[in-house]
């Protein structure tokens, strides 16, 4: 990927994405984002296909010595065009609902490359996934094992299962996205796992296919991944010997850089090992390969954010600037319903104007129009002067952006645009006001 020049310190993200200023105008790959905003309006999500492809390939290459399958976590970005692009790159998919499986199939992905995760799979979802032939159910409780066995029995099928094991490690990430501690709702404890496998083996309509773990998201060090793998090694070997499994899935969770202040402009920063605030594919691979290679199993990875996070931006237009004795509020046309990460996880997204700024920065809050104080994108952030009509991009919004959006305040869902080189595709239309009320009626149908 070529070096990019973005934000207020050029070359902050030399290996991360294909958004850059060209002649003072923010571009995605070869396309001026002002022209995209003119054509499709704002707010709008824009994705760089080249960035997605490059991230996927970089990770895949780093893991080359392994018999592996990268199952993209569909929850991070489930647009059909994005899934299709990844399917063509050879990705499998990590899904958590019937809806995600439906999307993968619609996008040209294969069910036999899908793992089905999640603590609350319903009978209907299990049946759908079984009929479509998913690669494996990652099972989170004994009750779920029994349910999958029962549904498979009714259909006369054998259900492939793996147990999600909770290794009780600290992923050192935000508490809402940490999943591998014993206090979290996920998986089965290490001490119980052997017994649960024995139980699975005794159920007639199950086929034990693997073992899985996942410790959390936005993890910026290799250490917790290695710790989880290390803690599971003995169990994985035991389960392999006892139940002849095919795969071990280490889950997702590789973090990305959101804040350029944490990044160094020095290209060596990106390739040096053991640096805080960022993890490279090399760090990840060199921590895990020595542990995983000797297992002699197929290794599954479930990255979401790493593949698409830095590959997307949310375009927005300044509506008003309101100055109070305490603050300057820049009010934009995007809101918390479009990108909820700041409100929900104190998520930090870099904000850059589409026209490269020359004036000095001053502190301001960037807020949306929704009637909640949590509706902000930045607080007391140093940004260049912004006036009504100016357009901005909220960076690194490609993961958990559109997918977590809602119609709150009766705001239509945004369009999604996929750019590759000079090619611009509207891959999801903006909802209309009519779409907002589709399916509703004044009185309902009489029962
Ligand atoms: N596998 C499992 C079982 C997961 O639960 C997740 C994410 C992933 C893979 C993918 O994790 P990733 O590689 O994207 O970190 N909405 C939050 C993140 C929630 C993550 C939930 N599970 C956010 O915006 O930060």
Overview of the structural elements:
This protein is 29% helix and 23% strand. By secondary structure, it is of the alpha/beta class. Helix 5 (123-132) packs across helix 6, helix 7 (190-202) runs parallel beside helix 8 and helix 8 runs parallel beside helix 10. It has two domains: 3-48 and 310-436, Beta Barrel (Lyase, Ornithine Decarboxylase, Chain A, domain 1); 117-303, Alpha-Beta Barrel (TIM Barrel). The protein starts with 18 loop residues before the first strand and ends in a 10-residue tail after the last helix. The chain binds ligand LLP. The site of ligand LLP has 21 residues, from helix 11 and helix 12.
Compute the number of helices.
Answer: 13
Shape: globular
> What is the makeup of the main sheet?
9 strands, mixed
Category by helix and strand content: alpha/beta
Q: What Rg do the Cα atoms give?
A: 23 Å
Strand content: 15-25%
CATH class descriptor name of the largest domain: Alpha Beta
Helix content: 25-40%
Classify the fold: give the CATH topology of the largest domain.
TIM Barrel
Bound molecules: ligand LLP
Q: Look at the structure and name the CATH superfamily of the largest domain.
A: Alanine racemase
Task: Please state the second-level CATH architecture of the largest domain.
Answer: Alpha-Beta Barrel
